[in-house]
Design brief:
about 260 residues, mainly alpha, about 85% helix, about 0% strand
């Protein structure tokens, strides 16, 4: 482990540098997203299943455009954000830990995309169909605002993108020895209850939609436990190897010290 004793000011300066890098990449991503936001908005509109959308406010079109641009930019630079976070904490890690945890970034980005894709292609259609059927049963004619529709999308896509990071986060913590997988098993019932409540907030009040979200979340948690066990075993092996190396180094130091005294 490379010891790097920094003062509070130096830590703040390090954070400032990391944030500056993120801001630069964010600006670049915003510029790029400016050109792809329009076709994406049109595609999402066409796939929504409504004949037309309405703007209830004069600034709704530009507000929507900016929201989509920012969302795309954040998704695009998410690997950069993860790398900057890793770079900030990496000086406190062992060499092996630095290499291993760095390799998690591509998988975390993939899980972010998988979470967004799952929520859009699986969950959103169920929610939309439920709302349409409920409106028809109540004799309600839906007048959908474009800004409200995309806000609804973001409220589903973003949480699932974050939730799908759970396996990587737990693997990261277990690989550093911070999290013991035994604890995850002990709190399984509590975790299931929390995930059940989260699913209830996200989905409409019908059993199929709820199961459609709850079951994948439970499976995701179980997968996280399995991955966490693998990471924790590797941590224990690395710690055992490190202690043996320290013992050997100390023994060698003592031998060198004795030999040096004999030569004198």
């Amino acid at each position: 482990m490379k010891e790097k004793n920094l003062t509070v000011i130096e830590h703040i300066d390090e954070i400032r540098k990391r944030l500056m890098v993120i801001v630069v990449f964010f600006v670049i991503a915003v510029i790029g997203s400016f050109f792809i936001a329009k076709p994406i908005i049109k595609f999402l509109q066409s796939e929504a299943g409504y004949e037309e959308f309405h703007a209830f406010n004069v600034v709704d079109p530009i507000a929507l455009y900016l929201k989509v641009i920012i969302f795309l930019a954040v998704v695009i630079i998410s690997p950069v954000i993860m790398y900057q976070f890793w770079s900030f904490i990496s000086p406190g890690l062992h060499e092996t830990e630095r290499k291993v945890t760095l390799s998690y970034i591509p998988f975390a980005f993939m899980l972010l995309l998988v979470g967004i894709a799952f929520s859009y292609f699986v969950l959103v259609p169920f929610v939309m169909n439920f709302m349409k059927e409920l409106s028809a049963e109540l004799g309600i004619t839906q007048t959908v605002g474009i800004n409200e529709y995309f806000t609804f999308l973001f409220q589903i896509l973003i949480p699932f993108g974050v939730i799908f990071q759970l396996p990587i986060v737990l693997l990261f913590l277990s690989r550093l020895g911070i999290l013991d997988p035994v604890k995850l098993v002990k709190i399984r019932k509590v975790a299931y209850f929390v995930l059940f409540v989260i699913a209830a907030f996200i989905t409409p009040p019908d059993i199929m939609s709820h199961l459609l979200v709850t079951v994948p979340l439970f499976l995701l948690y179980e997968l996280s436990i399995i991955i966490c066990r693998v990471g924790y075993r590797k941590f224990l092996k690395a710690e055992e190897k490190r202690k043996l190396e320290e013992i050997k180094a100390e023994q060698q130091r003592q031998i060198d010290e004795v030999m040096g005294n004999m030569e004198k």
